Amino acid sequence: MTPTLTPPAGTVAGPAADERCDRCNAAGKLRLTLAGGGELVFCGHHANRYAEDLVKIAVQYAADPEFNWRGADMMSNSN
Q1: I need a labelling partner for 53 at 20 to 30 A (CA). Which of 4, 17, 23, 32 fits?
Q2: Which helix (H) or strand (E) holds 77?
Q3: How far apart are CA 4 and CA 7, in angstroms?
Q4: Helix, strand, coil: what percent of the chain each, to 5?
Q5: Is residue 30 within 8 Å of residue 64, measured between CB atoms?
Q6: 56-77 tens-digit pLDDT
Q7: What is the pTM of this model?
Q8: Name one Pfam family in it (predicted).
């Protein structure tokens, strides 16, 4: 049996291996929870390209562990 880790309440799970970018259908690297509800998934290219706009509408994010999202610093500065 494989142990399962449950994330703390209020966190967002990172993109699953089979999830695709909502913009171009590449592999998902970033999942955003939007202020108005709902979620978006982006590939690394589009996540970084639109980082300044995405931090304005997102309340939480989760990135693939190997992906360095440029919006992460902007999200922590906006709180």
Answers
A1: 17
A2: helix 71-78
A3: 10
A4: 25, 20, 50
A5: yes
A6: 999 999 999 999 999 999 987 7
A7: 0.77
A8: DUF7455
